[in-house]
Design goal:
The protein is built from one helix and 62 strands. With 742 residues, the protein is mainly β.
């Protein structure tokens, strides 16, 4: 068995020596005699385990020191059956997960034609997943060409009329797939074709199920597409350098360019190995520097006024991001940087913001604890398959919230259990209190949601076509909605109790939506030669409202013409842009005075000053280290500010205080351990003071609001008034008037 690995042991020791991460794979082989003078070694089973332990004496551990310890994860894989050519026919994989192991069994039927030397052709494969007492199977049949072995027919779920999907393939003399047709059990067929060049190397024409044709011109020497002709009549042209790297992209309609041509240049980087300078006409530019390992280490972007805004990044020896500076103008120092640290497994340990606010993580086996910038805790627990099975917000505090997640076959989410209540406990309802409402989900064998039950909404049912499109949905009120699609999978009809909504496509050019209409409203769309929206018409009760759009030479919206009225002058809004392509001003046609204009930005790109047609100027100040809004003022041409608000924030970015400089009013906001608002105090002029308080139950439901009163809950819904609700969660009756409870 020379050259066949029997054991693979990998260990990673934390730099501070506090923890050792180990993984071990044990592989068992067997020897099969293929002739009196030859043999074959094949794998029979494997055992993969991981541990998270304290280091051994010298740091790393030997396998005899690890084996007696309980593994963090464990997976067993076995090949139970081979065919005569040692190809696996039956495989079994078990992921140990306490009392709920995940079992996956793969069974195959394989065809071997020794005369034609076509071996290992899988004709049937069934993958069955077992979990939580449930089973789901996915089956695939394949028919092969007897001369080449290429797949001619593929069938998914052959025993299920709802999921049955057959795909047939036709090939040219080179073996390239040239025709693909997909059919369901009702013989509804969709297809497309691919045409290759005479040598069978490059696809030169693609035709979809509706006959829309895309053609591709190739540079044969570089093996890259030079030009793509889209079905809507536009062409995309590409330029390359001698290394097949793109250097330019432009879109044409006839002889005219759309204007947003892109150019890319590749240069030596002063901080690493490669600098990529990309420019899109009218939409800005950026310069990206890479280090010798191909990681982005510096990014400069063009601002609206033509300056360059830059950030720098640094990585640790394992490739993890450890520092990113705040955006700053080139030639000026950065105000600060975000810093990260990671463990030896690449998981985050700390994140320090430029102002010193800190969040950190601890990883202990399958449990991850996160402490945010406000000091609030969240815990995530994973199972042996790496899935999140429990979350705890504010553990150990009066505000603690728990949520458990359960999974079925193929790891599909099946239940969401507040308070981690066991099924049935949500029926133990104490009047006035909200029970932990468990949500349930069911799926078909292809993993699509077919049924859900949320006690606040009732049951919902979903049905799909074999092509994967939802065709029916029914809610708890028996509201029936059906959907129809064209052969490209685009929605063309939605029918419900309110009538039909119809979508029409392709009447102007392939791929473009022409209209969307209901029984009372019709929206119609007209496009230019580049496929851009030119006119949007809306007809309501026979009256038509039309919006017309124009674009500038760089493919930016330049004018918007509003619907006209015979007794009013026309209204047209013009848009202006900065050098980075961002919107900087809007004016009314014929009047140079801006309706709105950006006058100043800060180094991070926040709008710090803007002016309006009425002469008012709004000035904003942002925290240079965190980006939070600190002050908002609106100033008239003369006199006192019309608006003067100051803000303070918690380290975790929750609003803590808002002060109105005009009225001398101060609002303070207080939050609980899961960041819900629990109190609001308002200090007004003349020592006026007002307080509001809020309280929540263990499910996060509001149970008290000052000045309103207490909220009482039924098994499905909440209200401060006595009410009647069916299982669908829709209110059907109310009674009486509510007054605050003492």
């Amino acid at each position: 068995m020379a050259g066949k690995p029997r054991e693979i042991l990998e260990q990673r020791l934390e730099l501070d020596g506090s923890k050792l991460h180990s993984s071990h794979v044990l592989i068992a082989h067997e020897v099969v005699m293929t002739s009196p003078r030859s043999y074959l070694v094949r794998q029979r089973h494997s055992l993969a385990r991981t541990w998270e332990t304290t280091p051994c004496g010298a740091g790393f551990c030997d396998l005899p020191q690890l084996s007696p310890l309980d593994p963090l994860t464990q997976q067993v894989h076995a090949v139970n059956e081979y065919d005569a050519f040692s190809q696996p026919l039956r495989e079994r994989t078990v992921i140990e997960n306490g009392d709920d192991d995940l079992l996956t069994i793969v069974e195959r039927q394989i065809s071997n034609d020794e005369d034609a030397w076509l071996l290992g052709l899988v004709t049937r494969e069934t993958v069955t997943s077992y979990a939580a007492g449930d089973t789901s199977s996915q089956e695939r049949l394949q028919v092969h060409d007897p001369d080449t072995g290429a797949v001619k027919v593929e069938i998914l779920q052959p025993g299920d009329a709802q999921l049955f999907l057959q795909t047939t393939y036709a090939r040219d003399a080179f073996g390239n797939v040239t025709v693909v047709e997909t059919s369901d059990a009702g013989a509804h067929t969709r297809g497309g074709s691919i045409t290759f060049d005479p040598r069978g190397v490059f696809p030169v024409q693609l035709t979809n199920a509706l006959g829309h044709v895309t053609t591709i011109d190739w540079h044969e020497g570089l093996a890259v597409p030079q030009q793509i002709h889209a079905p809507d009549g536009t062409r995309t042209l590409f330029d390359y350098d001698g290394f097949s790297r793109p250097t330019g992209v432009r879109v044409m309609a006839g002889l005219f360019s759309r204007g947003d041509d892109a150019t890319i240049t590749y240069l030596p980087s002063p901080v690493g190995s490669l600098r990529v300078h990309s420019t899109v006409q009218g939409h800005g530019a950026r310069i990206l520097d890479h280090d010798r390992l191909g990681r982005a280490v510096a990014l400069a972007t063009l601002t609206a006024d033509g300056h360059w805004r830059q950030t720098e990044s640094h990585h640790d020896p394992l490739g993890n991001l450890i520092e990113r500076t705040l955006p700053h103008l080139q030639g000026t120092p950065s105000e600060g940087a975000d810093h990260w640290s990671h463990d030896i497994m690449g998981r985050p340990l700390t994140h320090e913001h430029p102002d010193g606010a800190l969040e950190h993580w601890t990883h202990a086996g399958k449990l991850t604890t996160h402490v945010d910038e406000d000091g609030q805790l969240q815990r995530l627990r994973h199972d042996g398959a790496g899935r999140i099975v429990e979350t705890i917000m504010a553990p150990g505090s009066p505000d603690e919230e728990r949520l458990c997640l359960d999974y079925g076959p193929f790891s599909a989410l099946t239940t969401v259990r507040p308070d981690c209540a066991a099924p049935g406990q949500d029926q133990l309802w104490i009047p006035g209190e909200a029970p932990p409402l468990i949500k349930h989900y069911e799926y078909d064998d292809l993993g699509r949601l077919v049924w859900s039950h949320d006690p606040g909404e009732g049951e919902r049912h979903y049905k799909y076509s074999a092509f994967g499109e939802m065709i029916v949905s029914v809610d708890a009120n028996d509201n029936f909605v059906s959907y129809e699609y064209d052969d490209l999978g685009r929605l063309i009809l939605r029918s419900d109790d309110d009538g039909d909504t119809v979508w029409q496509w392709d009447t102007q050019a392939p791929g473009l939506l022409a209209s969307a209409s209901t029984e009372t409203v019709t929206d119609g769309y007209v496009y230019d030669t580049f496929g851009r929206l030119k006119i949007a018409r809306q007809m309501i009760d026979g009256e038509v409202w039309a919006f017309r759009h124009e674009y500038d030479a760089f493919n930016r919206p330049s004018r918007l013409h509003y619907p006209t009225h015979p007794n009013l002058p026309p209204v047209t809004i013009r848009s202006s842009y900065g050098q980075d392509g961002s919107l900087t001003a809007q004016t009314r046609e014929g009047d140079p005075s801006p309706l709105w204009q950006v006058e100043q930005e800060d180094p991070a790109g926040h709008i710090s000053q803007e002016r309006f047609l009425n002469g008012l100027v709004t000035v904003r100040s942002h925290d240079p280290l965190r980006g939070h809004l600190l002050r908002l003022r609106t100033l008239p041409k003369q006199g006192a500010p019309l608006q003067d608000l100051r803000y303070q924030w918690t380290p975790g970015a929750a609003l803590a205080e808002r002060q109105d400089g005009r009225t001398a009013q101060l609002e303070q906001f207080f939050h609980d351990d899961v960041h819900r608002l629990i109190a609001l105090t308002i200090d007004g002029p003349n020592q006026q003071q007002h307080e509001r308080h809020f309280a929540y139950d263990g499910q996060g439901n509001l149970v008290h609001a000052a000045e309103i009163g207490d909220y009482e809950y039924g098994p499905d819904v909440a209200s401060s008034k006595p009410a009647t609700y069916p299982s669908s969660g829709t209110q059907t009756a109310t009674c009486c008037s509510a007054s605050p409870h003492s």
